[in-house]
Structure prediction request, 397 residues.
Amino acid sequence: MHMKTKHFISILLMTVLLFSCDFLDETAYNKVTVGNFYTTKDGITNGVNGLYSTLRKLYIDEYFIYMCEGPTDIQLCINGPDQFRDWTIDASSGTVASLWNNCYRSINQCNAVLEALQTYEYEGMSDELQERFIAEALFIRAHFYYHLVQQFGDVPMPLTPTTTAVTTAVKTDKAKVWEQIIQDLEESIRILPETYSAAEYGRITKFAAMHHLSKVLLTVKRDNQDLNRALTLAEQIINTGPYDLVNTHTELWDINNKYNPEVIFPVLYTQNAELNGDGNTSHMYFCSAYSEEHDGVKRVIEYGRSWSRLQPTDYMLDLIDETMDNRFEECFISSWNITEDVYVEDVFSPVTKQMQTITWEKGDLAMIAPKKSLDKRADSGGMAGIGFPSGSDACKH
Prediction:
């Protein structure tokens, strides 16, 4: 009896083992996977459009500001991560990891789209459109590698999608990374159109690729040919592109002038939080902490949201010769007015040596930050000096 029971249990276990694999294997009947999403015209179109959204994440957060703007010779990091305030930046920083991870996630997405475009034929899609999609993906991949190689030098350079967990990484010599970037941008220039319809504003143009390649060649400077090619590209954009300079720098910071004629490579955002979270917050990090210095000066759109992460250095300010141009006046906020209808406070008068009551009215000049006293004010714990206009964005192209 016991032997029969044992045989029965053994047979039952073998049966379960034989069929368990089939039982656990899942077929994605009701969900989208990379394998089936990019096989249709609608799928690959959405895939290419999705690459543009990866650019939003690159420019939307603080990590990019710290990695690319401050601390440098032109910007000090006065708030934010300790490593960036005291110049002890290393790989343990979450800010460093954020740039690395976001770039490689986006590159992998580009690689998946490129592999599909180079593998499948799409019903209802012209060869011209398919080739243009390839050029757009190549540009975006090159853009992310451009930031990686500038920050880290030798980096891993996968050119095909990663579909499984990878626990090792092999660095590619930075010279080869630059070569790949240049190759991808040259191909983009060959294919991309010069303009699009108004409905497709924001898509990468031939001029954007030319501009990017010019910057790359000026950065890598392998020989005089690179410099001559960069000059030629820049002159072509100036002489044949649909661009022009605005009359004053102030117009660049006007929130209602986003589509101004100086923009070559825009990164578009939307007010739909489901599509880009909190939106582009990079403009907040260049504003002075003005609202912390005077109770009669509150946060207003005119002065920007005063997160005060970066501060221009004396070196940067000295680059601006006010006798020759108006960049200081038009690109910096150095005075703040009362924003409340009425504000009353008691202050000590250096003239009468007594306390006196002052009534402020909206529009009265409340604070100034003299250009030459910038570092002293910040070092003493005072207002974080001069700020950029609230619409400014150091990552604009």
